[in-house]
Amino acid sequence: MKPEWSCLKDVKIIDVSQLLPGPHATALLLQLGAEVVKVEQPGVGDTSRQLGPAVFAQFNRGKRSCAFDLKSKEGRAAFLDLVRDADAVVEGFRPGVMHRLGLGFDALAEINPAIVLCSISGFGQTGPYADHAGHDLNYLALAGYWSVPVQVEDKVSRPRARISDYAASGYAALALAVAVMSARQNGRGQHLDVSIHDAILSWTAHGAWAARDFAERPLASPTVMPENDIFETRDGRHLAMGILETKFWVNLCEALGADFPGLRDGRFSSRPGRQQHKPEVHGLLAGIFLTRTLAEWSEVFAPLDIPFSPSLSARELFADPHVLARSMIRPLPEEGAIALGFPVRFSLGLPQSDDGVPALGEYGTVSGEAG
Predict the structure, then answer these.
(1) Does 182 share its domain with 279?
(2) DSSP character at residue 367
(3) CB-based contacts of 7: which residues, under 8 Å, 6+ apart?
(4) Total domain count for the chain?
(5) Distance CA 248, CA 181 (A)
(6) Cβ 353 vs Cβ 367: under 8 Å
(7) Which conformational region is residue 29 in: left (phi greater than 0), alpha (psi within -120 to 50 degrees), or beta?
(8) I need a labelling partner for 243 at 20 to 30 A (CA). Which of 23, 83, 147, 192 fits?
(9) Quick check: is 219 in a domain?
């Protein structure tokens, strides 16, 4: 049941987007109580359906699927019928596509003046890159993600999650909630222009701004911290050491100083000192952590107040006691699929999630001649 307090109770969102940013944004709002109707292309559906049932399920469980050919008169009419009593439409086409289909903001507002149209695109609706193709790596590169020095032995490597897409989906969901609340108060909808590039730029800009002063000497950047890094262990695994405050360095020295007296070097006793001797500090720690396996280091650090973490494998992650205790993850009927709970706990509770994954067009299919 939906908690009565939910501000998204009775909110209806039409999701005509695909892949990650739009579907994830609407999935978040669905978890907060909204109804989401997914509009897909007949016979094809969301591109993520082609990547396997688990991929589609992760962002689209609990939604209703309609298959409308938006290039046909009949499909557009069916779409506009949904708009009449909806609160928002989320689309992920390139700029101008909705307008060319006759479904731009002005056309939707004629049907429903309180409608909110959220357009999620790579570079936004305006600007010299607006029509450019792109995916997560492109937005990261152009937002200066790799311009910020962060390691003594720095390197460019591909992130393991689609960071830009998730940044954009989070901002889109927040903006949609605010815009829908506003429209319900004053009866006026609006057009939200969500740029994936803008979203990740809002995360990278401060670090990149500071990095300008260290372009020729990146190791001198305060963002490079020799004791706050990832280190390899004897068995080829990795651990994360998050030391920032000197109190944690003191704890590390007390725990390991007898076996590794180099840690007690007076030059390293303060943060400014460790920053002045980054290669030495990092090299010292790298050598220390290579002397034991990850399991051995985990045992050493378990009772200590030190920000140490083993880098978990995929199997270890889902068996981790904290992950299990927080109950964030549950399996879905689809092979290989899981469902994630909303990552914020509400003391009054949230609506119980519907784990059902819609078949393409199961709530209606409308095709027709293009026109």
Answers:
(1) no
(2) -
(3) 32, 33, 177, 181
(4) 2
(5) 45
(6) no
(7) alpha
(8) 147
(9) no
pLDDT at residue 224 in the model: 97
Structural domain that includes position 125: 12-205+329-366
Percentages (nearest 5) of helix, strand, coil residues in the chain: 45, 15, 45
Q: Are residues 306 and 350 in the same domain?
A: no
Dist CA 135 CA 131 (whole Å):
13
Q: Is 245 inside any structural domain?
A: yes
**For residue 11, what are its two tokens?**
């909110």
Residue 93 domain-assigned (yes or no): yes
Q: What is the pLDDT of residues 19-58, one digit of tens each?
A: 999 999 999 999 999 999 999 999 999 999 999 888 999 9
- Specify the residue for token string 């029509």: 131
**CB 198, CB 124: distance < 8 Å:** yes
Amino acid, single-letter form, for residue 110:
E
Return the number of other C-beta atoms located less than 10 Å from residue 39's C-beta.
Answer: 26
Q: What CA–CA distance (Å, rounded) separates 36 from 89?
A: 10
Q: Measured between alpha carbons, how far is residue 39 from residues 172, 259, 370 in Å? A: 18, 63, 17
Residue 225: inside a domain, yes or no?
no
In which residue are the tokens 């650090």 written? 301
Please tell me whether residues 17 and 133 are part of one structural domain.
yes
Q: Give the dihedral sign, CA 286/291/296/300.
A: negative
The H or E element spanning position 121 is strand 116-121
Tell me, yes or no, whether 137 and 17 share the same domain.
Answer: yes
Q: How does pLDDT run across 94-105, given as a tens digit for each residue?
A: 999 999 999 999
Three-class SS state of 275: helix
Instruction: List the alpha helices (DSSP H) in the chain.
Output: 21-31, 53-60, 73-83, 97-100, 105-111, 136-142, 163-186, 196-211, 246-256, 271-276, 278-289, 294-301, 314-319, 321-326
Task: From 170, 171, 189, 169, select the one nearest 181 (Cα to Cα).
Answer: 189
d(CA 187, CA 181): 10
Counting Cβ atoms within 10 Å, is residue 54 exposed (0-12), middle (13-18) or buried (19+)? middle
